[in-house]
């Protein structure tokens, strides 16, 4: 697998690299030509192939956890190397448009190799990053197969823009991380500070994740893996759906307290207790079975190296009639044209389909999980005639549609079809100068088609269709020059790059279909409404980058970068921005001597700036809304056109300035390594969509206003704890602490309301952006318990009575609404342990998140909320306030958004436990077999009362997720999964 700029000669050397103790192949060993930028990486069988200048060439072999070796080629064409365990700092790191030895790195880079997660059966690459890369926070949005992950690097910068990092796969930028096959990945390198991310300019403002896929070499090899999964909800939430008699009695009491009559007779309650009710959790949840088949073919024929892989996944969801299917293919072909020229062609094709993503039913009244939790347990799923009971038979509990009917009869499909290609040409012009052309294109076609039986009182289905065609192409010209002057090495890299992206969106919707026979057979009822929508946008980015790398005697390391970016989203006068960075490293090896427990030490200091252009392509122009109504005479409305967004011709770059200080330590001759970094990041001139007062017509205007800071510490430690003939124990620990703060808003405001509103008809804003606080602030009232009998007179002043909820009030007697919690974690960590004993291997991976709250609106909905979920279904409601038992559990309706529903979200999770047995070579065949069993999400330690504190749910059009994290309106639960699989290689 070739990673670097090449200096090809006339000798091709191949071989295998193995562990000296047990002769097992080592995957991902870096094999480099000493004194040049040429190199390769061993494949899954430990094989490699590399062209070298001549017999005097020295090859260096380096691998995390093993001691490095150097071998002179001489007349050998095959060199097999056995490596001893013992780590050092000389593995190769991809830093963008090139590579560097880890010992020469000056910026903040975290690396994850395939070996770090090979014992965890993954279906998503994001799982490989979670807890394994310091400074990277990875959180699941929900547990539905195919759902999104939120990946953030060193905090959150923007209030209204996208905070996701740039994904670069084999040099092609903007790739969707969720589509990648983890088995295709050789290494993942995360660029975190400005001195590293400035290489990619404006696209690197939120950090960069560089993914290098596998290449083929040596003798042809076939690898197959098949594993089956069984997933289920770890445990059901305790509700009164399990105690239907208590539910009925509390419902009677609720109605009497409200001035009504009881809903159930004593005889009906007795019958309910005898026969049981409907537990809607058990009705909508199931055991989801998944099948995963992965395969690859790799090797070389003459001067052509190949790696071809494919994956098929079919995963049932743990909610009925939900699931995910994926089929993807990858082909990486490299051809050595002559001793100066090499050409590579990478092709990736993916198609995936999500069945009944929860967003199709909307979250106006909470998700379908929330609706199931609040549904009337005295109403069966089906009527006596076998048809669905559409609503509660007694008009209690949730007044929404039957959630089982909604899930089983609706058909919401999201289909993604993606094609990514890249042509890579490497030309060694001279011994010192090389040129690389990287030209690629990405085509994404996303179809959403929804047939929804839930909407409206008429129970007639509604449909909508949306198609997003996205295409981009990128051309990168990379010219490198490198020269050694005695003990001084100098390398210059220049880049000229052009990128264009185009998006075309078309859609329509129809309401009140009279023939609910399916999506393609429906007809509109007379007078039913239908709408058509479409949109077109494009953006262009032109860039120039120059990077200089200087090494003096393996002691002083300097990297300076300047990038000049021009974007089409700004007006001509503000279109171009220059973003510099400088990083310095200094080796302290002479100071520590190298003979004690510390074998190496290096300090690093970096500073840099990156820009952000993350606004819509036409955001500097005003926008119009047609068919608006206005009454000039206050009697009759006139139809016309109004402004809904205003021109902002002076809009320019959002800028993030970051400083990084790091210390790298090698332990016991490379047996372990330790890195600690402090960073300070400040984002100014935020690209913020600010509201326009109604006196000026309302709407929004984009402005460069506001500031956000992120300060924190990244820490990583790895160590080969035990290294014997039959038993090894390797451990790694990664942690990151980030303090986020909004340091400036606009117009001297101290806070601005978010866009996330509560369900159930209350329409109260649940989140705010507050000066001096982190992004992710919750807004609500402060719950003080219940009014007690002794406080009856005081309660009456506010129209309340004993047993009603009691809230903090101001001097005027009004309930105070303000910040009551925050959903942004400030500390994340992961602890990975790999054990081997003879042919057995065991992996234990634990991760945690701390320092955040969850706004558990789901719990509020089952605790006597308002709107369409008015009944008490919380299990603790049996201990509600009574004159004889004056608890702090209200006996009447209360606000959804109050501090009563703020819970600590801190958790520790046993993410993976995997036990495998390697049979090795089977008989006289060349086939290798491994079997394994594993469990994911086996144990969750938390005080949170919901399914999982990591999950959240959002309604569409209510702002970005980073200003409203940790709000749960009934998120799809995170399953507990058991996996059984086998791997074949021959």
Describe this structure as you would to a colleague:
- With 986 residues, the chain is mainly beta.
- Among the domains are: 1-85, Carboxypeptidase-like, regulatory domain (Immunoglobulin-like); 745-832 and 842-912 and 933-975, no CATH class.
- The protein contains 11 helices and 51 strands.
- The chain has a 22-stranded antiparallel beta barrel. The chain has a 5-stranded mixed β-sheet with strand order 10-15-16-13-14.
- Mean pLDDT is 87; it is low at 1-9.
- It is found in: Cell outer membrane.
- InterPro entries: Beta-barrel_TonB_sf (IPR036942), CarboxyPept-like_regulatory (IPR008969), Plug_dom (IPR012910), Plug_dom_sf (IPR037066), TonB-dep_OMP_SusC/RagA (IPR023996), TonB-dep_OMP_SusC/RagA_CS (IPR023997), TonB-dep_rcpt-like (IPR039426).
- Keywords: Cell outer membrane, Membrane, Transmembrane, Transmembrane beta strand, Transport.
- Pfam families: CarbopepD_reg_2 (PF13715), Plug (PF07715).
């Amino acid at each position: 697998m070739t990673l670097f700029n090449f200096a090809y000669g006339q000798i091709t050397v191949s071989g295998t690299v193995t562990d000296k103790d047990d002769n097992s192949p080592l995957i991902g060993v870096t094999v480099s030509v000493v004194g040049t930028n040429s190199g390769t990486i061993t494949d899954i069988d430990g094989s490699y192939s590399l062209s070298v200048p001549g017999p005097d060439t020295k090859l260096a072999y380096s691998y995390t956890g093993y001691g490095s070796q150097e071998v002179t080629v001489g007349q050998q064409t095959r060199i097999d190397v056995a490596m001893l365990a013992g780590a050092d700092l000389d593995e190769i790191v991809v830093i963008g448009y090139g590579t560097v030895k880890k010992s020469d790195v000056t910026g903040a880079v975290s690396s994850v190799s395939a070996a770090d997660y090979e014992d965890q059966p993954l279906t998503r690459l994001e799982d490989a990053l979670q807890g394994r890369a310091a400074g990277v926070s990875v959180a699941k949005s929900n547990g539905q197969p195919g759902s999104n992950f939120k990946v953030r690097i060193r905090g959150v910068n923007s209030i209204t823009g996208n905070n996701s990092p740039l994904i670069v796969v084999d040099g092609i930028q903007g790739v969707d991380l969720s589509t990648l096959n983890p088995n295709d990945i050789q290494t993942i390198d995360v660029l975190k500070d400005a001195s590293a991310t400035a290489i990619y300019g404006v696209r690197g403002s939120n950090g960069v994740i560089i993914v290098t896929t596998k290449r083929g070499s040596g003798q042809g090899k076939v690898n197959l893996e098949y594993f089956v999964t069984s997933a289920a909800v770890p445990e059901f939430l305790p509700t009164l759906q399990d105690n239907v008699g208590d539910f009925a009695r509390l419902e009677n009491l609720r109605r009497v307290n409200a001035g009504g009559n009881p809903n159930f007779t004593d005889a009906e309650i007795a019958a309910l207790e005898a026969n049981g009710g409907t537990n809607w959790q058990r009705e909508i949840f199931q055991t989801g079975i998944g099948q995963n088949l992965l395969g690859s073919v790799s090797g070389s024929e003459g001067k052509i190296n190949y790696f071809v892989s494919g994956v098929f996944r079919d995963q049932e969801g743990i909610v009925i009639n939900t699931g995910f299917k994926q089929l993807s293919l990858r082909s990486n072909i490299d051809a050595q044209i002559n001793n100066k020229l090499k050409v590579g062609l990478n092709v990736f094709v993916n198609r995936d389909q999500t069945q009944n993503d929860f967003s199709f039913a909307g979250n106006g009244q909470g998700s379908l999980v929330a609706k199931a939790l609040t549904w009337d347990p005295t109403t069966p799923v089906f009527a006596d005639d076998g048809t669905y009971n559409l609503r509660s038979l007694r008009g209690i509990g949730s007044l929404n549609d039957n959630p089982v009917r909604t899930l089983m009869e609706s058909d919401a499909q999201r289909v993604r079809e993606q094609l990514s290609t890249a042509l890579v040409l490497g030309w060694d012009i001279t011994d010192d100068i090389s040129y690389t052309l990287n030209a690629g294109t990405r085509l994404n076609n996303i179809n959403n088609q929804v047939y929804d039986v839930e909407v409206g009182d008429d129970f007639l289905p509604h449909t909508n269709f949306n198609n997003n065609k996205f295409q981009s192409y990128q051309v990168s010209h990379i010219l490198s020059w490198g020269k050694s002057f005695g003990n001084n090495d100098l390398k210059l890299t220049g880049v000229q790059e052009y990128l264009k992206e185009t998006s075309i969106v078309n859609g329509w919707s129809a309401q009140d279909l009279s023939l609910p026979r399916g999506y393609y057979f429906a007809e509109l009822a007379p007078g039913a409404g239908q709408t058509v929508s479409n949109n077109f946008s494009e953006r262009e980015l032109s860039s120039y980058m120059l990077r200089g790398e200087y090494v003096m005697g393996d002691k002083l390391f300097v990297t300076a970068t300047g990038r000049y970016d021009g974007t089409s989203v700004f007006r001509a006068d503000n279109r171009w921005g220059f973003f510099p960075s400088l990083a310095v490293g200094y080796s302290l090896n002479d100071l520590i001597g190298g003979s004690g427990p510390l074998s190496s030490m290096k300090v690093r200091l970096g500073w840099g700036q990156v820009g952000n252009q993350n606004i819509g392509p036409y955001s500097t122009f005003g926008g119009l809304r047609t068919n608006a109504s206005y009454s000039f005479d206050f009697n009759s409305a006139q139809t016309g056109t109004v402004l809904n967004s205003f021109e902002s011709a002076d809009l320019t770059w959002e800028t993030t300035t970051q400083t990084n200080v790091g210390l790298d330590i090698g332990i016991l001759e490379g047996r372990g390594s330790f890195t600690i970094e402090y960073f300070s990041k400040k984002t100014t001139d935020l690209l913020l969509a600010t509201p326009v007062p109604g006196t000026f017509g309302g709407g929004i205007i984009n402005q460069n206003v506001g500031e956000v800071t992120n300060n924190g510490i990244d820490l990583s430690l790895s160590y080969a704890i035990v290294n014997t003939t039959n038993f090894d124990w390797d451990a790694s620990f990664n942690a990151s602490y980030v303090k986020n703060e909004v340091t400036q808003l606009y117009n001297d405001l101290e806070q601005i309301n978010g866009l996330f509103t509560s369900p159930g008809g209350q329409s109260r804003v649940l989140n705010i952006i507050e000066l001096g606080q982190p992004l992710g602030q919750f807004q609500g009232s402060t719950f003080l318990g219940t009014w007690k009998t002794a406080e009856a007179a005081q309660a009456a002043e506010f129209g309340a009575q004993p047993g009603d909820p009691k809230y903090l009030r101001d001097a005027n007697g009004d309930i105070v609404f303000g910040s009551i919690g925050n959903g942004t974690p400030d500390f994340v960590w992961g602890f990975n342990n790999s054990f081997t004993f003879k042919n057995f291997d065991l992996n234990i991976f634990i991760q945690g998140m701390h320092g955040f709250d969850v706004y558990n609106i789901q719990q509020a909905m089952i605790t006597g909320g308002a709107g369409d979920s008015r009944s008490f279904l919380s299990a603790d409601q049996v201990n509600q306030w009574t004159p004889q038992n004056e608890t702090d559990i209200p006996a009447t309706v209360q606000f959804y958004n109050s501090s009563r529903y703020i819970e600590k979200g801190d958790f520790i999770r046993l993410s993976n436990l995997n036990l495998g047995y390697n049979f090795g070579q089977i008989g006289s065949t060349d086939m290798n077999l491994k079997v394994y069993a594993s469990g994911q999400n086996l144990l969750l330690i938390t005080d949170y009362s919901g399914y999982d504190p990591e999950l959240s749910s959002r309604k569409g059009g209510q702002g970005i997720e980073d200003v409203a994290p940790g709000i749960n309106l009934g998120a799809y639960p995170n399953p507990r999964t058991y996996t059984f699989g086998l791997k074949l290689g021959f």
